[in-house]
Amino acid sequence: MKPHVIALGLGILLATQTSLAVDRPGGRAFVTRSPAVGAHGMAATSQPLASLAAIDILRAGGNAVDAAIAANAVQCVTEPTSCGLGGDLFAIVWDSKTQKLHGLNASGRSPQALSIEEFQRLGHETIPPHGVLPITVPGCVDGWFTLHKRFGKLPIEQVLAPAINHARDGYAVTEVTARHWAAGVRVFRDQPGWADVFLIDGQPPQHGQQFRNPALASTLEKIAAGGADAFYRGEIARVIDQFMREHGGYLRYEDLASHHSDWVEPVSVAYRGYEVWELPPNGQGIAALQMLQVLKQFDLAKAGFGSPDHLHLFLEAKKLAFEDRARFYADPDFNPAPVEGLISDEYGARRAKLIDPHHAATELAAGDPLLRDGDTIYLTTADKDHNMVSLIQSNYRGFGAGPCPPGLGFCLQDRGELFNLEPGHANSFAPGKRPFHTIIPAFLTKEGRPVMSFGVMGGDMQPQGHVQIIVNLLDFQMGLQEAGDAPRVRHDGSSTPTGLPADKKGGQAYVESGVSAETIGELERRGHRVKHGGDFGGYQAIWYDADRGVYYGATESRKDGIAIGY
């Protein structure tokens, strides 16, 4: 298979398949647009102003890391419904100098003053999604500076300038963001400080309406001038500390001052001649690798895209991986997961034997490898020197926990909701511990060379989306944009790392409108419960064609974003 065939998104057009006749000049009926192409640089994000900022930074002499930070900062201003300075960050960087991948875990830890016993005293059996209790240390800003210190090229003031300008001068709110903003009003309006930051005369901004956030502009200016210390050990940290004390929260100045990001080694599995890379826990990336290890035991290409066999195998592989996710994935500083065993060929083959090709499983258990919704942004950038960045950043539930410290222009994340309050569980709450995390960047190589940086945002959908993208590209020979536009499926109802048990009826499969009635009928005959609708994530990708010396970029048709190459 030639990489440029994948990148151009031509798909497989068979003359006998009249259902593939389309109005566009190439690709299957569901393809929405052409992939972007450029020889010097590429950016793909879910927000046009972020993509433009990344390209401007590249054209000004910055590299892919500078561009990724600039894009993320702009999204913190323009997509506060999904990300922000109060959230966490993960990244995978292909560095052309060292010719290797570098992983960054920039997720924050729980407050030292909070404990399972305190939750019990307050009468909580699970951690609430909003308010002060689920708030953990924001890792985003330290993630920017950790990336920039190791790989950045331009001054950080120049990198953050586009975000500062948009926050101060205003920007026109995009359609999908406006919809999520409006939906958040009911949930967040009464959270301390939220309405002061995010409403205009008591109302959310509409599609196309200008929105300004001068407080966030001031915060970004302080960070640009004072670095990470300005956020974690300066005035900003003291404002957060005082705010939390006033509202019964537990996050303290000392929690912020002691925070640090960690460089981690990405892990991979081989799939159809390529290497698929994810970050190890406390994130859920290896769930995608576990699913691929199961799926490669089957001939998906023969089954055909969208067929009952294809979707049945996918759903069953997901169920298997997610039971292991619920049992093992956690902060490795507290409970190291048996990652090598979980993603091994032997274990994948053994788990695959548990799949009944004709019947959906209703009850599954985690294996022995040792022999739900969320809003997120994903972006990817690449530069003329062939550095590539795969970056994901999030508040977790939309605007996060909701509380907004005064004068800062952002709210704090609710990642702590993803802890388990059962003592002794791998992911059980502990002071100074990182929670289980849903946000995951990904990367694809071939024989150790960079091929694709990609991600699919959206809570539990993320590893499911990663697998569907890889399968679409490598099993079904789709193009880069085509692989993202293809109708997706999502399964909910597995056991969770927070302690929720699996649905005894086998969970719920959700499908997009492109899945045929015939396929749905056959899935139901095999025992799957199937519904239309749901959240199917958001995809961005950059493919590097070394033979032609160009990048191809794809972006999510379900979001507001664009891919730009030059």
TrEMBL record:
Write down what this protein is called. Answer: Glutathione hydrolase proenzyme
Ligand binding (L-glutamate): 459
Protein family per UniProt: Belongs to the gamma-glutamyltransferase family.
The UniProt annotation puts the region (Disordered) at 485-507
Instruction: Give me the reactions it catalyses.
Output: an S-substituted glutathione + H2O = an S-substituted L-cysteinylglycine + L-glutamate; glutathione + H2O = L-cysteinylglycine + L-glutamate; an N-terminal (5-L-glutamyl)-[peptide] + an alpha-amino acid = 5-L-glutamyl amino acid + an N-terminal L-alpha-aminoacyl-[peptide]
- Pathway terms, separated by semicolons: Sulfur metabolism; glutathione metabolism
**What keywords sit in the KW lines?**
Acyltransferase, Glutathione biosynthesis, Hydrolase, Signal, Transferase, Zymogen
